[in-house]
Amino acid sequence: MSEARYAVGIDLGTTHCVMAAVDLVASDRDDVVEGIEVVPQLTAPGSVEERTMLPSFLYLPHPDELRVEDRVLPWDKPQPFVVGELARAMGGRTPIRLVSSAKSWLCHPGVDRRAAILPVEAPEEVARVSPLQASTRYLEHLRAAWDHQHPDALLANQEVVLTVPASFDPAARELTAEAAAAAGLSHLVLLEEPQAALYHWILAAQGEWRKQVQVGDIILVIDLGGGTADFSLIAVTERDGSLELVRVAVGDHILLGGDNMDLALAHAVRAKLAAQGIQIDPWQLQALTHGCRNAKETLLGDAKVEAAPVVVPSRGSKLIGGTLRTELTRAEVTQNLVEGFFPVVEAAARPASRARAALTKIGLPYAQDAAMTRHLAAFLRRQVDATRDLEGFEDRSPDETTFLHPTAVLFNGGVFKAPPLLARTLEVLNGWLEGEGAPPVRLLEGADLDLAVARGAAYYGHVRRGRGVRIRGGTAKSFYVGVESAMPAVPGMEPPIEALCIAPFGMEEGTQAELPPQEVGLVVGEPVRFRFFGSSVRRADHVGGVLEQWAPDEVEELEEIEATLPAEGRQPGEVVPVRLHAAVTEVGTLRLEAVPRVGAETWKVEFDVRGER
Amino acid sequence: MSDLPLGFFARLRLALRAFGRILSDGAFAAGILRLERGELAGAVAPAAVAEPSKPLLRDTAPDSALQLLALLQREGRFVDFLEENVGAYSDAEIGGAARVVHEGCRKVIRDYLQIEPVRAEAEGARLTLAAGFDAAAVRLTGNVVGQPPFTGALMHRGWRVTEIKLPKLAEGHDVRVLAPAEVEL
User: Fold this and answer.
1) A320, A323, A327, A328: which to substitute to probe chain B, counting the most B Cβ within 10 Å?
2) From A40, A46, A319, residue closest to B169, measured CB to CB
3) How would residue A179 be classed by pLDDT, with cut points 50, 70 and 90?
4) pLDDT of residue A577
5) What would the pLDDT profile of A491-500 be if each residue is shown by its tens digit?
6) CA–CA separation, A419 vs A403, rounded Å?
7) Are B170 and A69 in contact (CB < 8 Å)?
8) Is the pLDDT of residue A150 over 90?
C-alpha cells in the first residue's frame, strides 16, 4: 500500500453524511490544508449535482419507477437503488420504499441488525435491506464520489476517520466498522462525534485554542444532530507543561434531534388547520414540515418577526386555488420548541419514562421525554464524580455538589443555528451552576454546526500523526459479563447474576485488558451466550472484580455476547473452561476473546446483534 | 497585426465601437467609407470591416433553458403559476401562491447562478462612463448624443451572471418533461 496522502473524515449521520479531508502532504503542524469534499449525487431523475451533504436516505425503486438512464451517476453503472437527495425526495412521495435513520437502527438492540428489515413498512415485494447494508450503501457512495474526484489517491489507500455517536455501544461500533470494511475502507479509525466537534474547534482556532481554555476547565460538548442527542465531558489537564484534553464521560444514546423538532411544529400547525376544518394528507404534512422548518428559521433567526407564513402548496397543478396558507407565530415556536424541548428545569430533574406500550410493531426507541434539558440534567448528575480521580481536579467536586460543573460548553449540530435554543440551553445550565455557587460556563465559539464533525474527524487523522493535541480518554465504559452466582438454586427463582469485570474504564485504542482470574465454561460445538453489561460511571473497577449488586443507574445491560467453540479435536458437549479477554482494536472497537487454560488458540466472542432478548 | 478572424462577440463590440465613432468622428467616418469602398484593401485586413457581411445568428440549444425551467417548476412551481388564470383569484390567494413561487425560484437562482448587479452604485446616483465602456452591459437611453465620457443617472443597476452551475444531465434524459405527471397508486 502506498502512504496515505489524505486523512478523510466521514460523518455518517442519522440524517445526512458529510466528508472532509486534510491533505497530509501539504499540511504541517498548525498550517492545515483541509476542506469539505463535495458529493455528486442524483438530485432529480437524470440530474446529478455536487452537494456538500449526502442525505442518509436509501430509496428502493420499483422496476418501472425510474428509467435506467435516469439513475446514472458519474461513476459505475446505474444501481438498482438510489442514495442521497433524490432518495429523500422520492421517499417523501412513496415512504414504503424509503430507508431512513439506518444509523439509529444500527444501534437498536431489539432487532437483528444484519437482517433485511428496512423499510419496516415495505410490502412483501420490496427487497428489503439490513441496517448494516444501508450504512454500507452510504459509505460506498461516498467512496465512489471520492474515487471519482481523486483517481490518483483512492479512498481505500487513505486514512479514514469515521465518526460514531459517543453513546454507541460496542456492538454498534463493531457494525459501523463492518459496514466500512464492506464498503472497502481499509484504513479505518472510529472517532466519537463530540470529540470530532472539539477537534474542529481546535482546528478553527488555529493554535489560539490554548488561550481560550486553561487547566481545570471541563468542556461540555452538546451535539444535537438531526436524529440524536449526544453529550460528552472533556477535561483540560496538563502533562509535561502542555495542555492536554481528556474525555472523561459520555452520555446515553438518546434518539432526539432536530427532525423531532420540525415534526413537532408541523403537528402543531396541522392541529391548527384541523381546528379550521382543514385536513391534510401525509404528502401535505411533509410539505408542511418543510414549511415549518423555514418559518422556524425565520422566527428564531430574527427576534423582531412575530409570525412567519407557512404555505403548503397544492399537490396538483392548480397552485393558487389549492395552496393552503397559514402561519407560524413566535408564541407557537416558543411553546413547542423552546418550552417543549428546552424547558427550564431543576438540576435534579430526570427524564420522564413511561412504561412502554405493548410492542405491536417494531419501531425505533425514540426518547420518551423530548426535554433535552432534562436529559442533560440527568447526564451531569450521573457524572458528578467524573473528574474525582483526575489529577488536578480532586477538589473540583466537593460533597455538596449534586452534578458535575462544566466550565465551558461547545455546541454542535444544526439545531443550534437557532440563537434562542442555544441561549435557553445556556440559561438553564447557568441556572443550575448558580444554584450551587459555581460560575457560569463560557461559550466556546465554533462555526460550521453542520460540517464540523466531518472536518474535525479529518483533522484528527492529521493529529494522529503527532501533529497536534490529542484527546485522550479511551473507552467511556467499563464492561462486565454476567455470571451466575454460586448459590443453591431456589425453585421458581432465577439464580442471581453477578457482573464480572473484563474491561476497565478508559482502555485506549490498541491496548489489551489483563486476563481475569475467573473462568467460565464453554460447551464445545454449541453457541454459549453470556449477558453483557457496561457502566459509564464505575471508573475504578478492575479486571476480575465482581459486582454482586448495583444501582439501576449505574450499570446497564447491553446485548448478549456469544462464543462458539469449534468441535475439532474435542468431544461435542465437552465443557472447556476459558477466560474472557478484552482488547480495544486500533480501529476503536472492543474485541472479546475466549482464552482456554491450555493451548495457544483463542476464539472470538461475538456481540449478539440479532435482537433476541 | 494578427490575421486570425475575430470571434463573434469581439466583432460585435468592434462594430458597436465603430458605430459610435462613425457618428462622432468625421475623419474616422471618412476612413471607414474608404475602407468600405475597397480603397484601403490590403492596407487593413478585411476582418476589420465594421459590419458583418452576412447575419451571424445562431440557435441556442434548448437543453439548459428547459433544465432551468424544470428546476424553477420543481422548487418554485413556476410553470404551474404562469399557466394559471390569476384573474379568477383574489390578491390574497395569489399572494399565498406567490410565496411558494418566490421562495422556490429564489432558491434555484441562488443555488445555480451567481448574480450580481452590473453597476455597484445605488440607483439614482450619477455616474460617468468613460470611452470604451461595454455597451452590452450598460445601455444608454434618453438624450444619447455627443462623445464619451457620458454622464447620466443610473436608472437600473442591471444584473450579470458571474457563475452558472447547472446539474449534470444524464445522456438520454428527456429535458422536455418539465414535471412528470404524478399518478398515485
Assistant:
1) A320
2) A46
3) very high
4) 86
5) 666 667 889 9
6) 26
7) yes
8) yes
Residue in B96, B167, B182 closest to A48 by CB: B167
Q: Is A174 helix (H, G, I), strand (E, B) or coil?
A: helix
Q: What three-state secondary structure class fits A453?
A: helix
Kindly report, residue by residue over A333-361, the tens digit of the pLDDT.
888 889 999 999 999 988 887 544 444 45
Q: Return the SS3 of A42.
A: strand
Chain A neighbors of B69, CB-CB under 8 A? none
Q: For residues A376 and A231, is the Cβ–Cβ distance under 8 A? A: yes
- A180 near A210, Cβ under 8 Å? no
Question: Buried b / exposed e across A156-170, counting CB within 10 Å, b at 16+?
Answer: ebbbbbbbbbbbbbb
The 3-state secondary structure of A360-374, one letter per residue: CCCCCCCCCCCCHHH
Name which of B89, B94, B167 is nearest A47 (Cβ-Cβ): B167
Q: Is pLDDT of A487 > 80?
A: no
Average pLDDT (A547-554) is 85
pLDDT of residue B8: 65
Q: Which of A66, A54, A46, A65 has its CA nearest to residue A226?
A: A54
ipTM value for the complex: 0.73
Instruction: Name the residue with cell 432478548.
Output: A613
Residues A447-457: b if buried by 16+ CB within 10 A, e if exposed: ebbbbbbbbbb
* Residue A193 or residue A486, greater confidence: A193
* Separation CA A610–CA A606 (nearest Å): 11
What is d(CA A37, CA A19) in angstroms, rounded to the nearest whole number?
Answer: 5
B74 phi and psi, to 5 degrees? -65, -45
Q: Tell me the three cell numbers of residue B178.
A: 418539465
Tens of pLDDT, residue by residue over A243-260, are 889 999 999 888 888 888
Closest residue in A to B171 (Cα–Cα):
A69
| Contact status of A323 with chain B (Cβ, < 8 Å) | yes
**Cα A116 to Cα A112: distance, rounded to the nearest angstrom:** 8
